[in-house]
Design brief:
The protein is mainly α and about 90 residues long. It contains two helices and no strands. Helix 1 runs antiparallel to helix 2 (about 60-89). The longest helix is centred in the middle third of the chain and has 37 residues, at about 20-55.
Length: about 90
Amino acid sequence: MARGYGLTMADDGQNGKKGGVLGDLVKAESMIQLALMLPAGCLIGALAGTWLDKHFHTGWMAVAGILLGAAAGFIQIYRTASRYMKRDH
């Protein structure tokens, strides 16, 4: 128990070794993040661009929003993947 707070540490079944069940869950969560970043960025960019198109009566901002969202998604994928690669070393 953690000093009187009634909290216990998660047991990953490895007794201090790297990995284990908890480590596998963290890796799976990171992979799910990678899979969702690009579509989420594109969707948010498309929604923002569509709103701007309606607000300013234009027709090109939705496409620009999709492209900016895709760029933001790729940047986040790169950052997450590089963090993941650093942890493995």
